[in-house]
Amino acid sequence: MCIEREREALLQFKVALEDPYGMLSSWTTADCCQWEGIRCSNLTGHILMLDLHDRGIPEFLGSLNNLRYLDLSFSGFGGKIPTQFGSLSHLKYLNLAWIFLEGSILRQLGNLSQLQHLDLRGNHFEGNIPSQIGNLSQLQYLDLSGNQFEGNIPSQIGNLSQLQHLDLSDNSFEGSIPSQLGNLSNLQKVYLGGYYYGDGGALKIDDGDHWLSNLFSLTHLSFHSTSNLNTPRSFLQMIAKLPKLRELSLFDCSLSHHFILSSRPSKFNFSSSLSILDLSWNSFMSSMILKWLSNVTSNLVELDLSYNLLEGSTSNHFGRVMNSLEHLDLSNNRFKVGSIPPSLNQIDQLGVLDLSYNNLSGEIPTGTQLQSFNASCYEDNLDLCGPPLEKLCVDGKPAQKPIVKLPEDEKLLFTCEFYMSMAIGFVISFWGVFGSILIKRSWRHAYFKFISNLSDAIYVMAAVKVFKWRHRG
Q1: Model confidence, pTM
Q2: CA-to-CA distance for 113 and 367, rounded, in angstroms?
Q3: DSSP states of 34-78 as a string?
Q4: Across 266-358, where does the E strand assignment appear?
Q5: 423 three-state secondary structure
Q6: Exposure string over 50-74, b if 16+ CB within 10 A, otherwise e
Q7: How far apart are CA 219 and CA 394, in angstroms?
């Protein structure tokens, strides 16, 4: 049996909650431990878990001092974090994602010393992250992405020695990434950077900073809109040396082919574990970047180079070496020299290809897997032709539709006939309907009676709906 004091707190919450779908219909029996969304201790009867995600937000949590698990994600709560959260000292799992919370993070959250999972993504939090977050020594998962945090990333995050997942992306942080992150040797996933709405610049990488080289367990790394990543060459070399890295995203980091191609490939030999690489929204221009990548990576499965400035064509070398690729995105570039390179057909495993929004020309190579892709992957290449496109080829070029030119006197005749037929049609249809109503009295009476009945019916329906709405309110 559950504790009566905690049962009363839940019943108070139910009274204050709108539950149109009866999701809390089980909250009537004597034993609240049997209620939906509630889990209690078999020994003490205290409530350990309250899971109401996608349902509603409780307002009386201060009494549930033994709560271990709290998931209120996607419930549309809004407002601020209640101060009672600071007293939930036994809490291990807290998920408040996407519930439109605002204000700043409570310093009292630093009291939750047993917390292992904290997810506050997709809200409207602002201000600085409190330094007390460094007190959460048991924390393994921290996601503060998609908010409006500003200022510097607190160095106290470096105290979270158990942390495995860190996502601070899509906020308004500025300044340098704290070197204390190098203390988090258990980190497996790191997501940093993102949009910034201030005038002082976004997150920066300090040249000569080696914190990343200590993260030997890292498997996922993402830098989003980190503008000076193009400057400290040693930092990119450290990324290449991460032994377990599987996914790397350097999205919108102002990278250019000048920086990459000026470095010897031997200094950028990525681990064979790297399978997903996102270099989209940068400033690569030379297609030689494709050859460079084929020299520094060996097992890529997914490569995204969309929204760059690439032009020219790929070499046959690229197709032979990158034959492990399953997903290749080269859309929104400037490829315009010649037709689609046959080297792409040498990538046997390729399942997703996007060459849309370029300036490719000529015929799509026939008898190859390049014809098996959806036509959308070749969209907006005006001089491209052949299957799967509807535009046919003639001698390797798009077939031109015949242009039929009419003499000027025939154009004038066509225009006059068109407007004359419109005028005749209007006169016949108008007088055919309204003329008969004016001439025949019985038809005229029937018409106006129909209009009157229709207006009455609409008025009655509207009045009934307004009455029901007011009665329900």
Answers
A1: 0.75
A2: 63
A3: GSTTEEE-TTT--EEEEE-TTT---S--TT-TT--EEE-TTS---
A4: 276-278, 302-304, 327-329, 352-354
A5: helix
A6: bbbbebbbbebbebbebbbbbbbbe
A7: 50
For residue 431, give the amino acid letter.
Answer: W
Structural domains in the chain, sorted by start: 72-254 (3.80.10.10), 260-403 (3.80.10.10)
- How long a stretch of residues is the chain? 473
Q: Which residues contact 255 (CB under 8 A, 6 or more apart)?
A: 229, 230, 279, 282, 283, 284
Distances (CA, A) of 331 to 78, 91, 310, 318, 356: 39, 47, 10, 17, 5
Q: Which amino acid is at 399?
A: A
Return the closest-CA partner of residue 342 out of 322, 313, 321, 312: 313
User: Residue 415: pLDDT band by 50, 70, 90 thresholds?
Assistant: low
Amino acid sitting at position 233:
R
**Burial label, 153 (beta-carbon count in 10 A; 0-12, 13-18, 19+):** buried
| Distance linking the first and last C-alpha atoms of the chain | 38
Do 388 and 374 form a contact (C-beta atoms < 8 A)?
Answer: yes
Residue 97: which of 113, 114, 118, 115 has the closest Cα? 118
| Mean pLDDT computed over 99-128 | 92
Residue pLDDT, tens place only, 182-198: 999 999 999 999 875 55
Distance between CA atoms of residues 9 and 365, nearest Å: 70
Cα 327 from Cα 300, distance rounded (Å): 9
List the one residue out of 153, 241, 269 whose CA is nearest residue 204: 153
Distance, in Å, from the CA atom of 194 to the CA atom of 70, rounded to the nearest integer, reads 28
* Residue type (1 letter), 258: H
CA distance 284 to 319: 19
Q: Determine how many CB atoms are found less than 10 A away from the CB of residue 166.
A: 23
Q: Which two tokens stand for residue 336?
A: 């315009």
User: Do the Cβ atoms of 229 and 235 come closer than 8 Å?
Assistant: yes
Provide the mean pLDDT of the chain. 83
Which strand (E) or helix (H) includes residue 168?
A: none
List the one residue out of 332, 375, 374, 331 whose CA is nearest residue 354. Answer: 331
